[in-house]
């Protein structure tokens, strides 16, 4: 009797080199020559702009789940902020996350948490996964848009241009902290949503997967850590559903709604 084994996925060396190089350059921040409080301030501000407005609000709640609507120019702005997170193509990001929700914690899930913390945190990105071939099917609403095609094809060049801007106004300390340290922080904050919130925390709702509400991930990701709530009601613009579940991104969406910029905001009906 033979036991079937899972086919070993090809290792993605270019992605490994890309992620490793960003982490290595970020280590220069430990050298005194590259430290300044103003550079740290730039990193913190850009963490919110790229990780909060870009990834959490733009890529996730707006583009992936369409939990609210904004004017097209504002949608493109949030997507541009997400592009500065350097997490690859915006089209791929949206497609893979939609696949994750469809098959959460089952084998077609790109970062299935049953394969372990390391795999769901970043291991899946270092391999050529089968889900990649299904991205076009899951992104038909955006993959023919020339703006999203441009942002997807040139996200590295956009980051380089941003780095040159930071160098012009603040020198190498701004580049090291405002690009590389900030990217490492945003990377791992985003990845914790895939890994930590499928392992640590509490479950309020039955979501048929391992998603959990994790307070410290919510703090790091502007509200994304209330992951069990999100998987139970994935189209809700609000993830922190209890009064103690701080959700800064929901506050931002609510502010946009008050201004008349966010419409058709999807809420959980109680």
TrEMBL record:
InterPro entries: Acyl-CoA_DS (IPR015876), FA_desaturase_dom (IPR005804). It holds the Pfam family FA_desaturase. Signal peptide: none annotated. GO terms for biological process: fatty acid biosynthetic process. Its main location: membrane. Belongs to the fatty acid desaturase type 2 family. It is found in: Membrane. It is a multi-pass membrane protein. One of its GO terms (cellular component) is membrane. GO terms for molecular function: oxidoreductase activity, acting on paired donors, with oxidation of a pair of donors resulting in the reduction of molecular oxygen to two molecules of water. This is Acyl-CoA desaturase. Its cofactor is Fe(2+). Keywords: Fatty acid biosynthesis, Fatty acid metabolism, Iron, Lipid biosynthesis, Lipid metabolism, Membrane, Oxidoreductase, Transmembrane, Transmembrane helix. The keyword Ion transport does not apply. The chain crosses the membrane at residues 12-31, 37-59, 147-168, 174-193. It comes from Euhalothece natronophila Z-M001. It comes from the Bacteria. The lineage of its organism: Bacteria, Bacillati, Cyanobacteriota, Cyanophyceae, Oscillatoriophycideae. Residues 36-249 form the Fatty acid desaturase domain.
């Amino acid at each position: 009797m033979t036991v079937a084994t899972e086919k070993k996925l090809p290792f993605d060396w270019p992605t490994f080199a890309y992620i490793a190089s960003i982490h290595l350059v970020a280590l220069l921040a430990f050298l005194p020559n590259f430290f300044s409080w103003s550079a740290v301030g730039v990193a913190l501000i850009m963490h919110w702009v790229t990780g909060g407005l870009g990834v959490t609000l733009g890529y996730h709640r707006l583009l992936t789940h369409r939990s609210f609507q904004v004017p097209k120019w504002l949608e493109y702005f949030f997507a541009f902020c997400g592009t500065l997170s350097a997490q690859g193509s915006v089209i791929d990001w949206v497609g893979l996350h939609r696949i994750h929700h469809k098959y959460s914690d089952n084998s077609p899930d790109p970062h299935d948490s049953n394969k372990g913390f390391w795999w769901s945190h970043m291991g899946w990105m270092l391999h050529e996964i089968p889900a990649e071939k299904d991205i076009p099917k899951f992104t038909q609403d955006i993959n023919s848009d020339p703006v999203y095609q441009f942002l997807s094809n040139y996200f590295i060049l956009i980051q380089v241009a941003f780095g040159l801007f930071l160098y012009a106004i603040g020198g190498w300390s701004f580049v090291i902290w405002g690009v590389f340290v900030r990217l490492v922080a945003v990377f791992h904050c985003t990845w914790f949503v895939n890994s930590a919130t499928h392992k640590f925390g509490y479950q309020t709702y039955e979501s048929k997967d391992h998603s959990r509400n994790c307070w410290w991930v919510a703090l790091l990701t502007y509200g994304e850590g209330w992951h069990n709530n999100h998987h139970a009601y994935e189209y809700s613009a609000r993830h922190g559903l209890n009064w103690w579940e701080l959700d800064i991104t929901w506050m931002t969406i609510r502010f946009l709604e008050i201004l008349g910029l966010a419409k058709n905001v999807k809420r959980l009906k109680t």
